Amino acid sequence: MKTKSDICADWLPRYTGTAVDGFADYILLTNFQGYVQLFAERFGVEVRGLDRAMPNATSRESNISIINFGMGSPNAATVMDLLTARRPKMVLFLGKCGGLKRSTEIGHFILPIAAIRGEGTSNDYFPPEVPALPSFKVHKYVSQKIVEAGYEYRTGVIYTTNRRVWEHDDAFRQRLIDLTCIGIDMETATLFVVGHHNEIARGALLFVSDVPLTPEGVKRESTDKQISAKWSSVHLDLGIKSLRDIDRHGDQIKHFRY
User: Fold this and answer.
1) For residue 99, how far is the Cα from the chain centroid?
2) Which of 24, 61, 63, 256 has the most CB atoms in a 10 Å sphere around its CB?
3) Which of 96, 137, 98, 119 is nearest to 246 (CA)?
């Protein structure tokens, strides 16, 4: 296996337990196995790859697959590389983030207009000057579905980091404030950059799961379970409806090549 295409064609089934042609044209990415289970129950399909690194499920009815790729930017880069074997029409990340603004409350949805590449992984794909951006038209459809469902959303810049435990670090916290980011996560910038590198249309719909700049706002297991129980189904439903709407309209997401 000398080429990237050879490697990804072999490794996508290896990581997921699903053949390359077993995935649909539209892909939902998540870090949460509960989302994959909810998706499988909704469409009456099986969850594949439970013994692999990236469990997944596919609905031929909706032309959508969902993949739990795990946590962190290295995993985000890996799944976006592996998906080049399938060449999906679009990828939408359903993730959580920490809210960094007073106007951002737990349960708010965020459509990132960009992400700061604080994770380092994306530097293997493009120089640091290249911004991490979503595909605009993807977010256009997602925003419409959020409004139609009667929910509010925020836009802004997400800071993506490889550092998981930082909430105690005053210098790091102050840097986040100085950068005026709306939220922080561990995957969005990587997904955007590697998607750009691989010419895959991509977007992200995040929801605020904690407000970590205050000690009482740091995520705890008990609060995370409550938030997930309240919002997981809504979050997943918005993602599914957005992808189905794009598929139904047959709209072209990518208009040109560099």
Assistant:
1) 16
2) 24
3) 137
Write the pLDDT tens digit of every residue in 170-206: 999 999 999 999 999 999 999 999 999 999 999 999 9
Task: Name the nearest CA neighbour of 80 among 185, 3, 184, 188.
Answer: 188
CATH of domain 4-249: 3.40.50.1580
Per the confidence metrics, is the pTM higher than 0.85? yes
CA distance to 35, 109, 124, per residue, from 28 (Å)? 10, 16, 24
pLDDT of 109 above 80: yes
C-beta atoms surrounding 255 within 10 Å: 8
Banded pLDDT at 258 (limits 50, 70, 90)? very low
Domain ranges of the chain: 4-249
- Cα angle 142, 145, 148; round to 5: 150
Higher pLDDT, 45 or 167: 45
Distance CA 179, CA 118 (A): 11
Distance between CA 136 and CA 139 in Å, rounded?
Answer: 5
- Which of the four pLDDT bands, split at 50, 70 and 90, describes residue 214? confident
CB atoms within 10 A of CB 81: 19
Taking alpha carbons only, the member of 137, 155, 247 closest to residue 201 is: 137
Q: Please give the C-alpha separations between residue 9 and each of 32, 127, 131, 140, 247, in angstroms, as whole numbers.
A: 24, 27, 28, 31, 25
Phi first, then psi: give them for residue 126, nearest 5 degrees.
Answer: -145, 155
